[in-house]
Specification:
Layout: E1 7-9, H1 30-41, E2 47-51, H2 61-68, H3 70-75, E3 83-87, H4 100-105, H5 107-119, E4 129-132, H6 138-152, E5 159-161, E6 164-165, H7 166-170, E7 179-184, H8 187-191, H9 193-204, E8 208-214, H10 216-222, H11 224-245, E9 248-255, H12 269-276, E10 289-292
Helix pairs in contact: 6-9, 9-11, 10-11
Length: about 300
């Protein structure tokens, strides 16, 4: 990454009211494309999470953003200045729609081709990060990384006809690898986050790791106070493990606007940062990425 995003917007239905640019009573379809553009251009968010988990999303999001708002994205290169990060369905947890896992990952090389054509630059990866929700084991992260590397990108080298490889017809598949971000949501996984990080690091040896700590849903499942304590424990453990491994760890805390879900609003940013600040003397102690859910 060229820089660490300080803020992320999501398509979470926490809006207080429907904005005037929405066509229907629900923000969906092309309205979500426009909402992503507003997140970057109006609200100043560095990152938008494009959410495949349990909802329908537009797989042509990168093409539509670049074609509809070219002036903005000429100045703010997607994948370099602003980021679009995919939240995948977890095939181990969401069994009825597990095939969407592979469909979502196919968006990555398509985004690369679109960005390369738009910017005229082979070194722009429009999308290269994915979030795996409900992560409970390192093996889930390893599978996701290797599935993309060997199945999505690796298929380019398959020979389907004598002397004819997939890349000869469809072109090369880039990027060759992706960054996988574990989203830790339950108590056992938060307490065992060190084992998840170490297992993934041993298998993949990433140069850095973003770790997404849920705060909103755990409040529903465990209560307000336990959710806060769980998040703090997971944040502290992830940074400590990063220090021990020599791995740069960039934590993300997923909070909503209501007090029960984390109380992150434009008027309460400083309090939230103080609440979840973890002080660990280490060269890898990094700023906190505050994930803001839809607030309108």
């Amino acid at each position: 990454m060229d820089h660490t995003p300080m803020s992320m917007c999501t398509q979470h239905p926490d809006n207080a009211q429907v904005p005037n640019w929405v066509k229907d009573s629900v923000i969906q379809g092309d309205d979500e494309i426009h909402e992503a553009y507003l997140a970057y251009s109006l609200y100043g968010c560095h990152e938008v999470m494009w959410d495949f988990e349990g909802k329908d999303v537009d797989i042509y999001v990168v093409r539509k953003l670049l074609s509809r708002y070219p002036d903005f994205f000429r100045k703010h290169v997607i994948g370099r200045d602003v980021y679009l990060t995919l939240r995948l369905p977890n095939p181990w947890a969401e069994t009825t729609e597990k095939k969407l896992f592979s469909q979502a990952l196919e968006l990555v090389p398509t985004a690369y081709d679109i960005a390369r054509e738009f910017y005229g630059d082979d070194n722009v990866n429009g999308v290269f990060q994915v979030i795996l929700p409900l992560t409970s084991r390192a093996e889930e992260l390893i599978f996701t990384y290797r599935y993309y590397e060997r199945v999505v990108a690796g298929k380019a080298f398959m020979e389907l006809l004598p002397g004819v490889k997939v890349m000869d017809v469809l072109g090369s598949v880039k990027p060759g690898t992706i960054d996988v971000i574990p989203l830790i949501e339950d108590l056992d996984s938060m307490l065992g986050i060190g084992k998840i990080i170490i297992g993934y690091w041993k298998a993949i040896r990433p140069s850095y790791l973003r770790v997404f700590i849920a705060r909103s849903d755990p409040a529903m499942n465990y209560g307000l106070v336990p959710a806060v304590l769980m998040a703090k424990i997971a944040l502290s453990k992830s940074l400590s493990i990063g220090r021990e491994l020599g791995l740069e760890v960039y934590p993300i805390i997923g909070v909503g606007p209501t007090p029960f879900r984390g109380h992150l609003t434009p008027y309460n940013v400083d309090n939230v940062i103080r609440e979840y600040h973890v002080s660990i003397p280490s060269p890898y102690n990094q700023p906190l990425d505050m994930t803001t859910q839809r607030v309108l």
